[in-house]
Design a protein that fits this description.
By secondary structure, this protein is an alpha+beta fold. It has 14 helices and 17 strands.
Amino acid sequence: MKTSFWAFIIFLFLCKSPMAFSQNSIEQYYIHFKQGQFKTALETLESLKPNDASDSTIFYLKAVTLSRLQEFDLSLNQYEKAIASNNQSPDLFYEYGQALYAANEIKKAREAFRTSVQKKFNVQTSLYYVAHISQILEEFEISKDIYLGLIKDKNLDTNLKQISHFQLCESLLSIARIKFKNPQELSQRVEKFILPMLETAYAVDKSTDLARDIQARKNELYNEFKLDPNLLANGRRLPSKRFTLSLSQSVKFDDNITLSNGENDTQQTQKESFVFTTEAYSKYDFVLKKMYVMSPEIRITQAQHSDRSSPEVYQNDSFLINANLKNKLEHQFKNQPASLLFDLEFSQVNKDWNQKKKKELYASSLAFSIGESFNLFSFGETTLKLKYKNYKGENTDISNKTTSLSVDQTYYLPKQQLLIFLFDFSSIDNFNLKSSSTDTYLLRFDYILPEIFPDYTLSIALATTVTDTKQQKEARGTEMNYNPSIEVSKQIGSNMKTSLTYDMTKSKSKTSSYAYDKSSLALEFQYNF
């Protein structure tokens, strides 16, 4: 503490002076002052019997001690006596300015700090106080010039540098509010100059309490001027991270591998196997005019079965590429955020369908969908979607055209729990083999419970599918498929997630090959970059 240091120097001088007080009293005062026992230190001063030559020093020491006791009215009286008696303590006007500032006599405080600058004591901090008081007095041009001068000082303390940057932004913002009466012009000024300068202030030292205040202030300005890059025009908020990249690896034990043509014919093999699946996923959100979000994404998945001796098992080895372009036009419905959806989806599947232990082109598809996501009910978001998919198989018998209509309803429960309801109707037209065309009705419920334990999430799902086999109804009947599942996931740090999933399927059909039971247990690790 600079004040203690200079007080100690004065004590030494007094102790050697013929005009000195009792040496023991002075030493006791210094000890009490250094230990923060200001009341005792003041009592020690009161017990001294100075002569006229030492009055100035007594006034000064009493003033400093009373300031530490926050007795500012009394301390100001002593400071004024010290100044009147021509006290030469280097920090006198700096300490006087602090006391005046605390007593809300800010104009006098500014003059005291200016005198401290002239006397070259604690120049940088004194200048900061002059600037800050000028800012309080709405003399923003003065504060701006001083803050700029401080920032240019290469020897400026880091803390002062950060707060000077921050207060410069506030001064410039106040000047802009006076100068630009047009809200759009003011908003542009804030976006172009003030917010980048706040970023500069934050970057000086991101670990300080002030840095958190700067971030909070930045968010306030984002909201006030509707400049938040993550807040869309309709009030919907996007994640701040635009780019998503994840890698995952899973191992699953399946006790009844099923054969599927990718659409509506699923049959059992009564073979069990481990399935090793590796997946990479990437997405980027482009935001235009805060109303349109375009999200190209790609997903690459490879699946390999451990049973290499059963052709009906390893023929399911696959390599899939899904490339999608998802689009959202943000608007409002009943004064709530809503999104018009339009998606393009391309998929290519390579499988070992010829049982050669070699993945070959099996099928490709192109899908278009249009939908609307809006708050039809107060308890959660509703999504309606109409989708058309053209599926082209290398075996032309499995080529088809699918038209789907789906509705998805979210129900927000207390403690961030979610209940999700999905209904999907799909009409599958196998135009090259009409007898295998079907209609399917899917009903699914998901219940998500985050934080069942710290960092653990529990997800429970139940899906039921009813299949109208149309021309095959006499042989297969109306098929029913029940599929309950449960998943426990754990977040590991900020990037890693692991999950354990149990899945069971029971399918009922008149034809035995389509009627089966199966279950699987999967462990997955996912890393998000």
